[in-house]
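Progress against Task 2.4 (sequence-to-structure conversion) is shown through the following example record, which the project officer requested during the mid-term review.
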Amino acid sequence: QVQLVESGGGLVQAGGSLRLSCVASGLPFSSYAMGWFRQAPGKEREMVAAIQRNAGNTYHRDSVKGRFTISRDNAKYTVYLQMNSLKPEDTAVYYCAASRTWPGTENTNWGKGTQVTVSS
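Structure tokens generated for the chain above:
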């Protein structure tokens, strides 16, 4: 059974930093592309960042480029999202995702999410 457990969320002031972690189990981690999504109240879930199996290729949505960085440690079955210069508009529930192809596509596995709140 695939499990994705996120941690590292919390309340931070604008301009601050957080590092989210997602520990995976029940899957061959190095064979999965991983991603982070977020969903703010009243909005659709959106991809924030994603990373291929071998970490050779990453994606970051335009609004977080230069502030957020996705990385992975295959030995620890963990994917990270380093978030710097946080803004109030980054407030959302952040979800970890795992896929054999690309996160968000069919058969994506999801974590339960971790709340990130950025105060102004």
